[in-house]
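debug: dumping io for the single-chain case to check the tokenizer round-trip. Nothing else runs in this session.
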Amino acid sequence: RLLREQGVYLITGGLGNIGLALAEELARTARARLVLTGRSEFPAPESWEQWLESHPADDRVSGRIRRLQAMEKLGAQILVCDADVSDEAEMRHLVERIYAHFGDLNGVIYGAGTLVAESFFGIDQATRHLCDLHFQPKVKGLLVLEKALYGKQLDFWFLLSSLSAILAGLGFTAYSAANNFQDALAFARSSHRGTPWISVNWDAWELQENWALAAMLPTEGTETFRRILSQASLRQVAVSISDLPARIDLWINPEMADETQGADESATLHERPELENEYVAPRTEMEQKLAKIWQDTLGVAQVGMHDNFFSELGGHSLLAMLVVARVRSQLYVDLASKRFMEAPTVAELAVVLNTLIVDVNSPV
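debug: decoded output
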């Protein structure tokens, strides 16, 4: 077991949804002393009550404050710091502040990263700037923090990598590469040093508190986290909510989609979730066919023509590959994955497919 009762743990990205979930687990099971970092400035503890009184209940910062207060009631001590993990001066200052405040540091949980939309792009769109959106926090930041902690004796380093390092995914060019770096660094450090480095390739977490098609619940994620830290010998762990070899096979041969994935004709479909967009029924024959493919793949009873596959319906890269494969096999249109990423609603995709059909049938 790697965790200590009232141990001191640094969680980079600790104010994000996953970071907070792991912090809550440490507060609940070990009454830990926690250092939570984020890139944005966060209200000081002495102003929390004033913030809560002056902001609506659904304010994002208010929600975080209430979660931090609940951790303190469990016996945890919390230090919140805003810091850029890729900045050497800020990381040196952070380390000094941790030791001045708590007198020790027992482990690092490294979850720094970004999920901004522009950081996910096809390999043909890759530029230094776009790749750095992931490389700065996940690669440079990790090396900078390791340097800042040089000579300090820790019980473990726990890296929040991603299953995309194994499966990749549409638009995951730099994200997958950055997570592969973390896996490789953990292997190298564990092979030559006494301190355990554990890299965990997480599957998607369900964090919207509404519905999930293929993701872990926070309770499942935190239980997995606890179990991993109870095994001191683990170095890399892939966490997949379904058969991982089958998912790899599906990436290699997406034409297997109808045989191995998705809802079939007789499967029970989920009710349509509450979305910002009202349901608008597909109008044309093409839109109706696409909506049916999306419904079968996502397991949703109603898909409207303006519902976004990714941001509203919970679709992800693997499900996108299934849609592309089914469009090719059922509609006989050679749809490229990139075109689907650029047209994530039934209405938009119908326009793309109709254009492709016209182009194919046009005389040369």
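debug: round-trip ok. Residues 128-148 form the longest helix (21 residues).
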